[in-house]
Amino acid sequence: MASLLFFAEQARCQEALRMSLAGNVAAESRRQAESSIGYYNLLSGPVAWRFSSALAVDYDDNVNLQSQNKEGDLIIRPNLNTQMHWPVTLKNSLDASLGVGYSFYVRHSDLDLFYMTPGSGLSFDIYAGNCVINLHDRVSITQSAYQNPTANGSQSFAQLDNSAGVSATWDMNKLVAQFGYDHATDTSIGSGRQVADTASDNWFANAGLHLLPQLTAGVEGGLGLISYSQVQSAPAQPDALQWNAGVFAKSQISQYISGQLDAGYTVYTPSATAAFPNPASSSGIYFQLSIAHQLNQFISYSLSAGRSTESSVFGQPYNLYFARLQPDWKLFKKYSLSTPVFWQKGNQLASQLYGSGGSSDYTQYGAGFNIGRALTQKLTASLSYQYVRENSTQLGPTYTVNIVSLNLSYQF
Known about the structure:
The chain has about 400 residues and is mainly beta. The chain has one domain (about 1-410): Porin. About 5% of the residues lie in helices and about 60% in strands. The chain has three helices and 20 strands. It has helices at about 5-10, 15-35, 350-355, and strands at about 40-45, 45-60, 75-85, 90-105, 115-130, 130-140, 160-170, 175-190, 200-210, 215-230, 240-250, 255-270, 280-295, 300-315, 315-330, 335-340, 340-350, 360-375, 380-390, 400-410. The protein has a 20-stranded antiparallel beta sheet that branches. The chain is globular, with a radius of gyration of 22 Å.
């Protein structure tokens, strides 16, 4: 399942809006966990714990993402996961999650990497009347270069992401308002070339009105201040300001269909530097449409598509279009099956913003499947396959990669 994470993760939208969406996903995950009977498997006083371990064996036929002379390798990935829930008081609770592992490459030991799974971090909820305040710190270390199409064909690319901040949700029955702040850093590690790391301060706010029991609509906005590190091999990437304003609507359309739409206008404005004395601004619409549909007792699917301006894709601003479809099939009683497909297209804004020559575009698409089965009450096995193809103009070679994974997960 971890090997298919790329297909399921949300697109990186405008930074401030992305922080808001990430907070909503994290809050929903905590609510589901706390309401699940038997979710935690160890109780130590008032603190509940959940422990699990996993072992994945992957075969990657193109570890360096080359168009010719491809080199394959066998990768062994053991990992440990723990989650904790501590109700500090009747109204306050502390949650922690940590997933760590190591990637061992049999032939390319220079690619070995310690990793930390997305979702790791701390969260502290404070309830005050009809207001919930959340303090959080989310961190991850990921490697696979194809998950960042602008990584210039370097499988040695890895990235440390950290986001720390505070958010507050105020539920006034018919009206729900949310606002917050996050400080986010993206640090490249193990990369074969020097790139600009980024840090950003992001403020977001939204307010929604329950128009009907099944429909909530409102307005949203965000502001981000982005700074880039110095790169000796290239002119410094100008710091920038990005803001967005728009509307959203989410609805339980029927018992089996739910959807959400975020749409609005975003502006990315770089600051002037000695290397780029007269930068231009980039502006345009953003949108993200998400649909979940339980078609029948055997088939369900989720669909998302949209456009965003990403302020930090491997040290460069990009316009992105994306679409993802994940069908889930319950055709066999003891097996789970999913067949995700995705497509995305990116356009670098350097020529538009700074007047630099040329532009770098890419198109990436892929498909895969994952089939899993519970072998015992605590042991689960899954087999997955991924196919990814990328066509680039100046970013690097056109390549294809095939990855087969066998995963074993044990729940203590």
